[in-house]
Write a structure and sequence with these properties.
The complex is a heterodimer of chains A (91) and B (476).
Chain A (H helix, E strand, L loop, with lengths): L1 H20 L7 H12 L2 H10 L4 H31 L4
Helix pairs in contact in A: 2-4, 3-4
Chain B lengths: L1 H6 L1 H21 L6 H21 L7 H20 L5 H26 L5 H28 L13 H21 L3 H6 L6 H20 L7 H23 L2 H24 L4 H6 L25 H10 L2 E6 L1 H5 L3 H13 L3 E5 L10 H8 L7 E2 L1 H4 L8 E5 L8 H4 L18 E6 L19 E5 L2 H13 L1
Parallel strand pairs in B: 1-2, 1-4, 2-3, 4-5, 5-6
Helix pairs in contact in B: 2-3, 2-11, 5-6, 5-9, 5-10, 6-7, 6-9, 6-10, 7-9, 10-11, 13-19, 15-19
Classes of the chains: A mainly alpha (91), B alpha/beta (476).
Amino acid sequence: MEMMLLLFVLVLSIFLGFELINKVPSTLHTPLMSGANAISGITLVGAILSSGGDSSSITITLGTIAVFLASLNVVGGYLVTNRMLRMFKKK
Amino acid sequence: MILEVFQNNTFINLSYILASVLFIFGLKMLSSPDTAQRGNFVSSLGMLLAVVVTLLSKEIVSFQFILLGLIGGGVVGAIAALRIKMTSMPELVALLNGFGGASSLLVASAELFALTTSNLVAMIAIGIATIIGGVTFSGSLIAFGKLSEIMPGKPYLFIGQKILTALVILLLLLLLFQFCSGIFFAEILFGFDWINEQYALILLIALSLLLGILLAIPIGGADMPVIIALLNSYSGLAACAAGFVIGNNVLIVAGSLVGASGLILTNIMCKAMNRSLLNVLFGGFGATDSSSSSGEGKVQGDVNPINIGDSYLILEAASSVLIVPGYGMAVSQAQHSVRELGELLQDNGCDVKYAIHPVAGRMPGHMNVLLAEANVSYDVLVEPQDVNPIMDTIDACIVIGANDVVNPDAREDESSPIYGMPVIEVDRAKTVFVLKRSMASGFAGIQNSLFFKQNTRMLFGDAKESVSGLVSEFKS
């Protein structure tokens, strides 16, 4: 049953995503991509659970590398998006 | 006591819902230049909330490794983000996509080793997260290599490539079936009883990485915007699959939002090139010898070169100018000089617009970022469909390092590989200046009949030097 719930969420979010993004002007395509990329770093949540959990050393090792890569993704993604968006001005 | 409230599952899940809402609002606000920066901030708050709540959860027993990864990754990411040049943005985005994918792959792998009971749903999720994550990672690394010119940017094709790719996909599916079902063919056929899910996972990772490489190497530089958008989508889908692995809604929501946005961008890029995604992925565009398909029997005629002094005289008299930037502007870092020229033209009473083709450059919106960096107001940026109807009224077009996106063959020559692609119809303007290093053909390797038109003037040389030359003519 939980599986069905997750699938339900998946399908709805995909439709929501299409609705949300459809109206982005082409000027903002790059920041949209890097900003969305930062969001995909949400896998960090899973990485943290693996890295800090009470489990085997291999899980912890893999989890820690995942935390490293995901934080790089998140921090780098948000900062670079912000840097770009700061430049978009109307005069 | 208070800590227990925060560790409560209901509290954690409510926080994840709030984080998802913040992501949704953030993305929504990203769709307008006025609110975009705040949107990005809102979405980062969502991320912070999700991470902090996860750190509080009861399942976390030790923090030293988490902190190591968080601080290490955060510092490297921050340095990269603050140091990167705007012209190198496509490389950074490609790399970050790849890291996101790799992270999801690792989360899935880590979870396999943590599984205590065999669980079909979890195995399917782990398998899929591994495949998408692996393809995203190696594909992004190849894209990064091509964009940063560590690797040659030309499509890399070999005989039997499509067959090999198809074979790898087939093997991956077979392996995925074995991985999920626990029925190993090698055990049944050859009696390899030592084979288990963990070996299968390693093989699954290896094959996914191989598939990512196979999918990315045939993509040429001009098609990079498509593949970057597609990898962007994959990085989201990988996170989404990782969400199924750990049974976490926030990963599924955030991941599928990213997956959807990447797919939309991919679709926009494909439409802008009038090609299907399959054609982009497997067409090996630009690798074929295009001289046989276009311009072979046609007399192209001579080009009309022009010098900076004469160009100035024409521009000085123009009352409307359209600037069309392409990848060449990024290469020669000409965006600041271009902005200066645009301002001088405006001061001269001329109407100046910038026409940006969706696939100009190496990633979606590449030119917009560079012009924004150079402080060009975004409301003078126009899209091809807005400017083409009024092209006949424009006195001069200045094409700066763009090639395929202004090629008239897309409308005129049915045998051209880019026939049917929507282009900026600069050849219909009264005069077209083409700033170009030499007569070498563009990235896609296609002849451009624009260079041989009556009203075209070729201003040879480095784009930045030519534009700076025009700027100093205006100032003197």
